[in-house]
Amino acid sequence: MNQQDCLIRFLFEELGVRGEWVRLEKSWQQAKQHQTLVNAAVESQLGQALAAVVLLSATIKFKGSMVMQIQGGGELKALVAQSTNERMIRGLVRSEVQVNGANLQQMIGEGGRLVLTVESENAQPYQGVVGLDQQDLAGALRTYFNQSEQLDTRLWLFANETCAAGLFIQELPGEHHDKSDWQHIEILANTVTEEEILTLDCEQLLHRLFHEEVVRLYEPEGVEFKCNCSRQKIGSTLAALGRSELEAILQERKTIEVDCQFCGEQYLFDKVDVENLLTNPDSIENDSSTRH
């Protein structure tokens, strides 16, 4: 499989440590094309978030989606990245026209927090929250895992205009692992450079970092951009506003236009559509009134 858009898991055979590697190229280009990226720093934060959510989604078994949200009161208002269990990704960013922070913590500002939500078809939704008290996303996620999983975990995340990539290592649960094994792998992994992680394939990177270790690689898993918005979902959101709110909007204009923040898809609802939404929500299907 082409390693331009894929996730690869790996295991240190003789040590109690597992890992993952991800690179996004085409999927990264598609995910960001509908976002307003005011500078390269904001672009990098979105790319890092997308790489991270793919890595995190591969750490658990579930059928559904994992959503990572970063919010605060700074110039970078919100950062959202989502991955399904099938590695379908999408993301969005909301910011001021100018974002001057040198790192994520400064961009997000006071009261920043990271929220991780797992929405699974066969289990109750799970949500974890951690304060954004680290300078970067990798540091915030390290804190999250230490608090929620109580497993030593490290991530290295990088993104530029052409590529987003990440490396993940985590100690395996169990009481029989030697802590020095983890420390040894962590020290080696921490030598990785931005250039290496953005340019080398998985095998090349692992060989460069861990050439003396026995590493088992698993089959690559493809990653692609895909938005799961639909006319029915948008319609349900509109219906929740209530009749008076929708009728007030329609008095000002002939149709209600709703754009998906993730992919730019535009959905149009006229008076007949709105009445159907309010009286028979299931009647609205994808049709010709959806405009790409």
Topology:
Blueprint: E1 6-12, E2 17-24, H1 26-32, H2 40-57, E3 64-71, E4 76-84, E5 88-95, H3 104-108, E6 113-120, E7 126-131, H4 137-148, E8 153-159, E9 164-171, H5 179-189, H6 194-199, H7 202-210, E10 215-217, E11 221-222, E12 224-225, H8 231-239, H9 243-252, E13 256-259, E14 266-269, H10 271-279, E15 290-291
Parallel strand pairs: 5-12
Antiparallel strand pairs: 1-2, 1-10, 1-11, 2-9, 3-4, 3-6, 4-5, 6-7, 8-9, 13-14, 14-15
Secondary-structure class: alpha+beta
Low-confidence stretches: 286-292
Separate helix tally: 10
Q: What fraction of the residues are assigned to beta strands by DSSP? A: 25-35%
Query: Can you tell me the CATH topology of the largest domain?
Result: Hsp33 domain
Average pLDDT metric: 89
Helix content: 25-40%
CATH architecture of the largest domain: 3-Layer(bab) Sandwich
Query: Secondary-structure element order, as H and E?
Result: EEHHEEEHEEHEEHHHEEEHHEEHE
What is the β-strand count? 15
Backbone shape: elongated
GO biological process, one term: protein refolding
Pfam families: HSP33
GO cellular component, one term: cytoplasm
Keywords: Chaperone, Cytoplasm, Disulfide bond, Redox-active center, Zinc
Short description:
The chain has 292 residues and is an alpha+beta fold.
Task: Report on the architecture of this protein.
There is one protein chain. The protein is built from ten helices and 15 strands. It is α+β, with helices and mostly antiparallel strands and 292 residues long. The protein has helices spanning 26-32, 40-57, 104-108, 137-148, 179-189, 194-199, 202-210, 231-239, 243-252, 271-279; strands at 6-12, 17-24, 64-71, 76-84, 88-95, 113-120, 126-131, 153-159, 164-171, 215-217, 221-222, 224-225, 256-259, 266-269, 290-291. Strands 1, 2, 8, 9, 10 and 11 form a six-stranded antiparallel beta sheet that branches. It is elongated, with a radius of gyration of 21 Å.
